[in-house]
């Protein structure tokens, strides 16, 4: 599962017993050699789809990690790109790997996605593989934050892989991982929130609509379809109207306590 350049079992154990922020600080130097990094095929497919949706001027990669999504934004945004993450270690690696690249101006900001320090200055927000770090009750606040940094007519886009069928080995693998994490968090502090099965399409669509977004699902044809005909991977495109109304759920938009 890991390349020789990836973390050792001992390193993973230390990271898993840390907070989310500290764990990713420790993992950062070897993160790109783990399965946790979004595969290049997904990044390329999302970039191709966004080029058909654009053009965009300014883009934000939410929970950018080592900057894989920033590379997508550099291909679809004309003026500037920003990566935001709460792990200083991940941002250090992202800055290092972005040096010397041509394209729009890139900046890096350390901040919590649940309290973004930006004005509504972006046309596009993307995120890759980060939503397992947010509990379902945090989605209203998270989506309200995304809405707050987008200009009217702006887009929030992210890929979503279809969940494995209950009879498949993948289903039981994810269920087992989530169960282990819940037991770990019941017995150990600080918490490390990472639940692969908590981000459900129905909940996501409902909370995006409540935050004022119109939601469109685009199949990513590069990944084909399942036997029932449904796409294996979708791109969720949540767009604000040109004159965005106030969201219907402001009373629910507060974020939970910091997990750091």
UniProtKB/TrEMBL annotation:
<dbReference type="InterPro" id="IPR041698">
    <property type="entry name" value="Methyltransf_25"/>
</dbReference>
<protein>
    <submittedName>
        <fullName>Class I SAM-dependent methyltransferase</fullName>
        <ecNumber>2.1.-.-</ecNumber>
    </submittedName>
</protein>
<keyword id="KW-0808">Transferase</keyword>
<dbReference type="GO" id="GO:0008168">
    <property type="term" value="F:methyltransferase activity"/>
</dbReference>
<feature type="domain" description="Methyltransferase">
    <location>
        <begin position="60"/>
        <end position="154"/>
    </location>
</feature>
<dbReference type="GO" id="GO:0032259">
    <property type="term" value="P:methylation"/>
</dbReference>
<dbReference type="Pfam" id="PF13649">
    <property type="entry name" value="Methyltransf_25"/>
</dbReference>
<dbReference type="InterPro" id="IPR029063">
    <property type="entry name" value="SAM-dependent_MTases_sf"/>
</dbReference>
<keyword id="KW-0489">Methyltransferase</keyword>
């Amino acid at each position: 599962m890991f390349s020789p350049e990836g973390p050792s079992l001992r390193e993973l154990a230390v990271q898993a017993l840390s907070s989310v922020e500290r764990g990713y600080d420790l993992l950062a130097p070897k993160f790109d050699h783990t399965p946790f990094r979004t595969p290049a095929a997904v990044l390329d497919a999302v970039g191709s789809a966004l080029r058909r949706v654009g053009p965009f001027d300014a883009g934000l990669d939410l929970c950018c990690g080592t900057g894989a999504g920033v590379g997508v934004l550099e291909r679809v945004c004309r003026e500037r790109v920003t990566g935001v993450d709460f792990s200083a270690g991940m941002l250090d690696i992202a800055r290092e790997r972005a040096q010397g690249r041509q394209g729009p101006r890139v900046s890096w900001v350390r901040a919590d996605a649940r309290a973004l320090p930006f004005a509504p200055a972006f046309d596009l927000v993307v995120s890759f593989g980060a939503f397992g770090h947010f509990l379902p009750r945090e989605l209203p606040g998270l989506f309200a934050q995304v809405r707050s940094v987008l200009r009217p007519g702006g887009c929030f886009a992210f890929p979503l892989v279809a969940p494995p069928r209950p009879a498949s080995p993948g289903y039981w693998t994810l269920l087992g991982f989530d169960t282990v994490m819940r037991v770990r968090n019941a017995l150990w502090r600080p918490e490390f929130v990472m639940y692969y099965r908590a981000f459900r399409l129905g909940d996501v669509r409902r909370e995006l609509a409540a935050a004022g977004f119109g939601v469109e699902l685009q199949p990513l044809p590069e990944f084909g379809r399942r036997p029932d005909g449904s796409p294996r991977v979708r791109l969720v495109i949540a767009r604000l109207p040109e004159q965005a109304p106030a969201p219907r759920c402001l009373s629910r938009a507060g974020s939970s306590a910091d997990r750091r």
